[in-house]
Amino acid sequence: MVVPRANWKGFIKFGEVACPVALYSAASASERIAFNTLNRKTGNRVKREFVDSETGDPVERDEQVKGYEIENGQYIVLEPEDVAAAVPDSDKTLKIDAFIPCREIDDVYFDKPYYLVPDKMGTDAFILLRDGMKKAKVAAIARTVLFRRVRTVLIRPHGKGLIATTLNFDYEVRSPEDAFEELPDLKIEGEMLELAEHIIGTKKGSFDASRFDDRYETAVAELVKAKIEGRALPRRKAPPAWKPSDLLQALRESAGVGTAKAEPKRTAANAKKRASRQKTSKPAAGAKSKSTAAPTRRAG
Fold first, then answer.
1. Measured between alpha carbons, how far is 296 from 300 in angstroms, rounded to an integer?
2. Number of helices and strands (H, E) in the chain?
3. Facing residues of 8 across strands?
4. What is the reported pTM?
5. What b/e readout covers 271-282, taking b as 16+ CB neighbours within 10 angstroms?
6. In order of start, what are the domains of the chain with their CATH numbers?
7. Torsional sign, CA 177, 178, 179, 185
8. Residue spans with biased composition (Basic residues) (predicted)?
9. Predicted pLDDT of residue 118
10. Are strands 66-71 and 138-146 parallel, antiparallel or unpaired?
11. CA distance 130 to 12
12. pLDDT, tens only, 254-289
């Protein structure tokens, strides 16, 4: 088993209590299939290089500098030592600023999750922090320098340990008003809403990450395997053409109204009322009743 390498090592501090910890990526793309770019003619790998946009000449690494465009084609140059001097220095400490209710932060601010693991020397303090947060049902807001930037981190109890999620800054999160600006102000009521509630009720479940497969990765793996084995390459089936449909009718079909499937509450209740009325109006035994049903044909 390959032991993952820590992305960051330092201390977590709450009050005057501190303990050594490390951050490990909770999500990784290392298991995905990766491709190399080749020269079609020779089959050799190609390498990437930077070239001058005007002269076309290659630019060596030590000749590359950062530049900020102030006008069209006009730049100010930032030397590596200038950038290094401006970047906040790291004291390798996750300073907890506050403890907040677990659900207080909108998850649209969530960036990347890390497992927060204690060093062997700080296990007691780490467990104390974890169990204290569990009992109080709170999360912690902390700050530190990660990868040369000051980052805000949300720390929550997670299984036997803690999970630290870096948060997007407010200026990085788009306003929902901008995203939903053109959405009309409609109010859905009556049968449509009841049918939607019924459909949602029949689809209730629980989240299990293992149930969701990466179809792209699976398809690419099968393609590579077919190439290696010299088999015919798989081709995806064309999806059925989408056709616009009447919303109410589509809801009724989805809910099984008028079919053998379960009907929503109001429809089922109406059926019971009709059955009750038919029962009370049923003619007495021996009484003649008119039938409007079509006569049944007999074979022969």
1. 13
2. 7, 9
3. 23
4. 0.68
5. eeeeeeeeeeee
6. 8-27+87-172 (2.40.290.10)
7. positive
8. 271-280
9. 92
10. unpaired
11. 12
12. 777 655 444 444 544 554 555 555 555 444 444 444
